[in-house]
Amino acid sequence: MEEPEPTGTEHGPVQYVSLEVRFFGLRLAADGRTGLAACRHLWARYPSLRWMAVTYAVSLTLLVLAVVFLAISA
Question: Could you state, in order of their start, the residue ranges of all structural domains in the chain?
Answer without folding.
Answer: 17-73
